[in-house]
Amino acid sequence: MNVLILGGTGVISREIVRQFVSARHDVTVFNRGNRDPGFGQAVSRIVGDRSRRSEFEDAMRRTRYDVVIDMICFTADDARSTIRAFSGNAGQVIVTSSVAAYKRPYRSVPTIEDQEALWDDPGFPYAFHKAAMERVLWESIRQDHLPITVIRPSLTYGPGAMNIGVLRQNYGIVDRIRRGKPLVMFGDGTTPWSFTFVPDLAKAYVGIAGNPHTFGQDFHVTSEERCLWNDLYLEFGHLLGRTPEIVHLPSELLRIAAPDLCTHLYFEKSHSGLFDNTKLRSVIPDFRADVSLRDGLRAILNWYESEAHEVDRQKDDLEDRLVALHGAFSAQMAAIAAGNAQETK
Q1: Which residues form a coiled coil (predicted)?
Q2: CA geometry: angle at 171 spanning 167 and 172, to 5°?
């Protein structure tokens, strides 16, 4: 197949490119050309900026691809632009959304695509815009019968990822465990979650591409390994040979302290993150998410160790302050408990 990938340089999209190349498809990437995807002559490149709508759409209308994979569609305007650019000149358009676009609380657990509604609260902008993007796509699917497929990944990790940890501390997680510094977890850390790793997500794109049974359909693609949020830090600790100290704070307080980092915890991650891949397996019967949390984090740790990584000092200082507040609050609660004990004597 002749495949165009809008993006192609991010952690997820690079792996998608790699798997399509390995499957011997002809791959072209479209992006601003700021980063080399690292595939040499195996991948064709188009340099451009999709935010320049007219220029982007005019250029794309002069092309023809069997499959277009849009990894950089985030808003309703982006979706309209994609539709204008590829209506009539693409055999299939796969658009990447997110499980964040589902309305919470879920109607089904494990979550099933056809039982869910789309997010409608602007208080969580990422989810709000992804859901608005999807509504544009679904309207075009209904009215124009366009061959569009929507994929909703969950939180996806892999070497190169910069979204690892409750505060997106990334390498800071390893540093804090090694130094014996506590790590902050939202809630009590027992919210179920399926941590998905890049190779598993990418192989779903390859399986969906060119499959007519996926046209006009939506699929979430996640691991089905049942973990708890605490397990993220406990597994890093296992790999490092040290048991991490974890302190727990409510997600609504973390959101107040660091809204840019923690809004998603309050609106999204505090709800069960378990997803049923039955619909995906109905079109890719042999699909399995094979990378376990331990194996995925081992790959990330190896990446950390093979390259020079620095601790984000602002996030590290924030985590220190949050840990200190947790300690002060715990001391106050202990004082209240002691006072109550005295009164009952």
Answers
A1: none
A2: 55
Write the DSSP assignment of 279-324 as a string of letters: HHHHHSTT------HHHHHHHHHHHHHHS-----HHHHHHHHHHHH
Pairing of strands 148-153, 156-157: unpaired
pTM check: above 0.85: yes
Q: CA 62, 65, 69, 71 torsion: positive or negative?
A: negative
Which residue from 173, 123, 118, 151 is spatially nearest to 12, judged by alpha carbons?
151
Distance, CA of 138 to CA of 121 (rounded, Å)? 19
Which residue is it, tokens 């840019």?
260
Taking the C-alpha atoms of residue 88 and residue 188, their distance in angstroms, rounded to an integer, is: 50
> Exposed/middle/buried for 46, CB within 10 Å: 0-12, 13-18, 19+?
middle
Segment (H or E) for 183? strand 183-186
pLDDT tens-place string over residues 75-106: 999 999 999 999 999 999 999 999 999 999 99
Full set of structural domains in the chain with CATH: 2-327 (3.40.50.720)
